[in-house]
Amino acid sequence: MKHFETLSSYFNYMQLPSPEHPLLSVLTAGANNFLPCPIDHSPPITNNCYSISLKKIIKGHLNYGRTKYDFTNGALICIAPRQVLQWDNSVIFEQKGFSINFHEDFLNGTELAQQIKKYSFFSYTVNEALHLSPKEEKQIESIVEHIEIEYHNNPDAFSKDIIISHLSTLLKYTNRFYERQFLNRKEMSHDLLKIFNQQLEAHFELKPQQNIGIPSIEQLANKMLVSQRYLSDTLKKETGKTASEHIQLYLINAAKNILLKPNKTIAEVAYELGFEYPQYFSRLFKKKAGLSPTAYREKYKMN
Question: Whole-model pTM above 0.70?
Fold first, then answer.
């Protein structure tokens, strides 16, 4: 897998215009122009840069999960450093909008260096892009216009602070619009929760035969063809609980049923559910159920 340490080497590989700043690039399309298109296919690659891109006109078929969406209203795609990128030439598209790329070192010494790590949408996949309304597009493009002006100005003592401030505002609006998208896609969120529960049930149905442990969020997300962060964020918006909390609740409910079988020890119950250490199972059970496995068994055992 190829990895690009610098923004310039990454742009050279992508056959894009050289950035005017060693750590920052701003590409925009005018009213009658298109963004420069990168190479039409690539094996897996990584780089040390953040990327925020708005794709406004796309020809071809791109899916959001298993559902087709209209990308002509604008798809905002956010990519974090070292996220694996790969594409082929099966999708033919033209694009308007903008593409902002900045090396992670560009944020050094700023508050945004820590703040940006809290935006989980940088860990979503391209299929989980933010679909903007026309009004939202205008708000985003207005911010990008200010960034572009500073990018092309002769740099001075204020340039970086101003660009960082606009980038921070851009990310805050992106976060707001993602909240709106989660609310507008209640049906999809409900389906994701249903599939998540089905994957959990399927995992534990196989457990006795395959001696497999507790499933990780990453394993379940991969089976569901979504990113780990997107899965957890969607479940959080739908139910108030993260994916990790859902797994724990599933384990506790399953444990309650098994504990009422008197022929199994507490350790055997823990191992059956995939816990490596019975002590951890006991601590988790008490935390979630309010009493220890032994106390639960004594309280609810059948007479």
Answer: no
